[in-house]
Amino acid sequence: MKDRFNGILLTRNEAKETIVERKELSLDDLMDGDVIVEVEWTTVNYKDGLAITGKSPVVRRWPMVPGIDCAGTVVESSNPRFSAGDKVILNGFGVGETHTGTYAQYARLNGDWLVKQPDGIDGRAAMAIGTAGYTAMLSVMALERHGLTPDRGPIVVTGANGGVGTVAIALLGKLGYEVIASTGRPEEADFLKELGASEIIHRDELSGPAKLLNKERWAGGVDAVGSHTLANVLSMTSYGGAVAACGLAQGMDLPSSVAPFILRGVSLLGIDSVMAPLALRQEAWARLARDLDPEKLEAITTEIGFQDVIEAAKDIVDGKIRGRVVVKMGQE
Prior knowledge:
alpha/beta, Quinone Oxidoreductase, Chain A, domain 1, Rossmann fold, 2 domains, seven-stranded mixed beta sheet, six-stranded parallel beta sheet
C-alpha cells in the first residue's frame, strides 16, 4: 500500500463554491473504516457529476473525496467478512457524500457496506454496471415483486439514454418485456432498439404538465427523471400497474394527483440504492450476473482514465453521456 496516492478532493471557498482539485492524498485524508480497498475501477454517475460541479448539494461534509462506487481488492481488513485479496463492490451508504469516496487509489470503508464480486462479473463489468445499473436492477426487481410480468403490457423507461435507462432497457428486454423508451435524443433510436426497446418516444411527450388521468398506455415504468415526467408516466399507467421511481433528472417535485392511485390502483414504488440492505444488494448483483447480457453491457460502456473523470462529470450533468462510463484507476 502506497503512503501517497492520487485522488480528487472537493473543498469550498468563502462563497460556498465547489473547488475541485486533483492532488496527492494519504490515508490520513480518508475517514475511518474497518476495510481498506485498493480501487481498481470506478465510474461516473449522475450524482458524481452533481457533486463535482456543485450543481446540487450532494456533498454534506467538507473536504470530500468524491465518488460513490468502486470495484477493487481488499488490502487490509479487521472486518470478519473480508480478508486481504477479496474482490469487492461498493455502492452507496453516503460514500462520496458524507464519507470520503472512491475517486482515489484507496478507499477506507465500513465492511458492512461491501458486497463480494459475484461469479461472472469482474471489476470492470461491475463498474460498467455501477450504481446506475444496480439501481436499474433494483427497479426491475420491485416491478416483479409487484407482480408485473411481460404479458401485462409494456414498460416505459424514461431517461433512456442514461445509465439507469440503458441498463433497465437491456434487462427488461432480455426478460421478455416490451419496452417503450423515452429519450430527448431521438437520433439514438437504433441504439436503444438494439438494447431491447421496441418503441421510442420523445421525452417532450412526458415533460410537460400532466393530466389527472390520461389514456392507459403501459403496465408500468422505470423512471429516473421525476417531476412532470413521473406525473405523466403515472397518469398513463394501466389499472393495477406500478412505476419504480429512482431518479430526479428533471426535478425532485411530483406535480401529480391521487387520481392514478385511487381510480386505477396504480402503485408508486420508491427505489433507494443508497441504504438498501445487504440481502437485497446481494440478490441484485446475482441477478445482474445472470440477467444482463455482457455484449449489451459492453455496447453501452465507454472506458476512460482517471485523468478524465472531472470532465466526464461535467458532461454527464449536461446530458452529453450515453450509457455508462467506466474509469480505470491508475490509467493516466
